[in-house]
Amino acid sequence: MTRLTKALALAAAVLITATAAQAQSPATPPPPQAVAPIIAHVDGGMIAGKSTGGVAAFLGVPYAAAPVGDLRWRAPRPVAPWTGIRPATTYAPVCRQTASWITEPQSEDCLYLNVWAPAAPGKARLPVMVWIHGGGFFGGSGSQPLYDGAQLVRRDVIVVTLNYRLGLFGFFSHPELGAESPDGASGDQGLLDQIAALEWVQRNIGGLGGDPKRVTIMGESAGAISVAALVVSPRAKGLFQRAISQSGNVGLPFDPTERAPFDRTAAEATGLAFARETGAASLADLRRLSADDLIKRPWTPRAVVDGVVLREDQTTAYQTGRRNRVPILVGWNADEGKDLAPEVLATSDFTAARHPALIAKLLGRPPSAALLQAYPAKDDAEAPAAMFHLVSDFWGWRIWRWARLHQAKTERPAYFYYFVHSPAAPSTPCGYGCNAGHGAEIRYMFDHLDQDDRAWNAEDRRLAARMVGYWTNFAKYGDPNGPDLPGWKPFDGSEGSVRRLGSDEEIAARGRLPDFSLFGP
Fold first, then answer.
1. Rounded to two decimals, what is the model's pTM?
2. Integer distance in angstroms from the first to the last C-alpha of the chain?
3. Which of 178, 244, 286, 454 allows an S-S link to 218, with CB 3.0 to 4.6 Å?
4. Residue pair 144/162 in contact by the 8 Å Cβ criterion
5. Residue 97, number of CB atoms within 10 A of its CB
6. Which sign does the torsion angle of CA 170, 171, 177, 178 carry?
């Protein structure tokens, strides 16, 4: 019997008391849908979540101490215990960030997670899906409505979402950090937060009906990059058994030739320069500055190969066997370039004259004649579309390389997808993630078509059902296949081992994979 099941008695007592009070006040109408309190015990003490429609939600649960004051930029510390029953029915503040699309309250005190689970768990423990949000490591949160896990719980899984430190607070290196850390870590605080959340899951999810031996990490964009990093991080060993990476694997060094931008020494030099600009002579001085003062200063967050959280590039980790041996499910979307090109190239000025130089910036080398021929920009009118197409395919190539490496160097399977579906247009003009754009797949795999006011059709609903089936089957068995689903072969490098996600017409029109050899081996 789980701790959650044992706690139902206490919740029942609360409900009986509430029912008796309502009986004495017949004029009070019942709510349209009953929301029942539900109690559980986790690190730190008792929490009271809510149960709606058979799904229990525990929101704003602390998984680590507040990283404020002297704990700013340190590895996450254990959560402080509390007395009584802590409410867990509303989301906690999100981490401090510069993202313009986030309107939720922000705080440095942000290391909280959210759990959705069956309100009345059965005897069998359920697989756990831990979602790591995207946002370029500078924005986002685990409480965005699109990530609500209730729909997936109805497919017999448990869902966890989390906040992690972002921007300057989550990806900052400094020589004094390495000196004060017991293991010499300097940077990657956001990744350490994700690891701390996974450790929380290992300690606590059994009490909520989950199986700590069937944990799937999954994420999109920066969350997908995080998943790729955790697969090769020694600090994450044993904390998960499967990994899903959606449109990621770009913000990490793939092989030794790509190490320079992620070098710890360079990152610490950047941190020292930042400190000098603020007038801080030491790390202690930086910690005394307010978050408001720090966050207004420019900062580009990125993961760092610090020798602790990340020890090496992906290829070396796979070749030496120093990676977590788990099956992976990875892929990308057909129209991501329009969303990503302005971000990764730091410009919106796509002209024919600048086309070769921008490609060289993306690849880190001059483009070949064959590549320029495949993505031609004959004039300024043609240049933006050519660059968007190229960036989409470049994104896919990075993920394709990871799948090939995984398939060649481990006995665990990889499953590769290509999302080509264009949803119905929104009621207001689409500015980001349009068609099969960046993040377009999320509403399908979380089964949240209901959150958008669009003219959804039978094909949209069919695709959502398939993706939910594939994703939850992978969490349950390490294999996305199941009854009533088109077969999905393990990836072997062939076109036939790639699962296209879209209608038959869309797959026929645009499902052919790019010529990845144009980008490299």
1. 0.93
2. 52
3. 244
4. no
5. 27
6. positive
